[in-house]
Amino acid sequence: MDKLNANLNSTNDVEKMILDSKADMTIINAKNIDKATKEKEQLSNIQDLAVKLIDVKNNGWKELDT
Predict the structure, then answer these.
(1) What total of structural domains would you count in the chain?
(2) Which domain holds residue 53?
């Protein structure tokens, strides 16, 4: 009976480790998604600035819409 309880406790420990690991991976994935979203926004801002600079180059400062 003690051996059975030890095996059950061991199994529970392994299951807990797996669940903890999955939770850690979920947090890591969420952080990666957040980072990627911020990087995408930064790239979009850079693209917008590039378009404005092209407008300035082609049309002069009077056409710059800020």
Answers:
(1) 1
(2) 2-63
- What does the alpha-carbon distance between residue 12 and residue 16 come to, in Å, rounded to a whole number? 6
Percent of the chain at pLDDT exceeding 70:
88
Range 17-36 burial, b when 16+ CB lie within 10 A, else e: eeeeeeeeeeeeeeeeeeee
Alpha helix segments (H runs only) across the chain: 2-59
Read off the pTM: 0.58
In this prediction, the residues of the chain whose per-residue pLDDT falls under 70 are 61-66
Encoded tokens for 37: 């979203």
